[in-house]
Amino acid sequence: MTCRIRARAACGSDSGAGLERDPDIVGSCLEDAAHYTGGHAEAVAFPRTEADVSRLVRQSARVLPIGAQSSVTGGATPMGEVVLSSARMDGVLDVRSDRIQVQTGMPVASLKQLLYHPPLLSSPLSRDAPTLLRNSQASVSHIIWP
């Protein structure tokens, strides 16, 4: 059986984010909240844009995407892959009266600050913020209010 994947072009421009091989930087990503031992990685990448992610995935044989590494299953512990950290993908992409779109690495605490920021206080975003934050995971990528 043959499979074909078609994908749209990556959004954003390539910022040139490269692979970090510094042992201290790589070492900071070698375990998740489960403290599963034996983690090792070739390198760590900190992409800023979707185009960066696209390039890094194309040029790496194996990639382990990580967020906050809050998993308690060992699933965010690398075993030789290039670690792709979403830590620098924390920007706001779009804000409207009924929705906000953020990059995948936006921590919930930062989203909370954004939702309670004065320009949004009169919008449905601010009114519904407590429910949103109570129901969210470690990172939020797209939220739409009815």
Structure description:
It is a single chain. The protein has helices at residues 23-27, 50-59, 108-115, 124-127, 129-135, and strands at residues 19-20, 43-45, 63-66, 82-85, 92-95, 99-102, 142-144. The termini are far apart. The strands form 2 sheets. It has a 4-stranded mixed sheet, covered by helices on one side. Strands 5-6-7 form a 3-stranded antiparallel sheet, with no helix packed on it. It has 2 domains: 19-85, 2-Layer Sandwich (Uridine Diphospho-n-acetylenolpyruvylglucosamine Reductase, domain 2); 92-144, no CATH class. Helix content is 23%, strand content 16%. The longest helix has 10 residues, at 50-59. With 146 residues, it is an alpha/beta fold. The model is unreliable at 130-146 (pLDDT under 50). The radius of gyration is 17 Å and the shape is globular. Strand 5 and strand 6 (99-102) form a beta hairpin.
Beta-strand segment tally: 7
Distance between the termini: 42 Å
Tally of individual helices: 5
Q: Looking at this structure, what is the CATH superfamily of the largest domain?
A: Uridine Diphospho-n-acetylenolpyruvylglucosamine Reductase, domain 2
Q: What is the fold-level CATH name, i.e. the topology of the largest domain? A: Uridine Diphospho-n-acetylenolpyruvylglucosamine Reductase, domain 2
Order of helices and strands: EHEHEEEEHHHE
Task: Bin the helical content.
Answer: 10-25%
* Total domains: 2
Which structural class do the helices and strands define? Answer: alpha/beta
Query: In which order are the strands of the major sheet placed?
Result: 1-2-4-3
Poorly predicted parts: 130-146
Largest sheet: 4 strands, mixed
CATH structural class of the largest domain: Alpha Beta
Q: Give Rg in angstroms.
A: 17 Å
Q: Which percent band covers the strand fraction? A: 15-25%
Global morphology: globular
Overall mean pLDDT stands at 79
What is the second-level CATH architecture of the largest domain? 2-Layer Sandwich
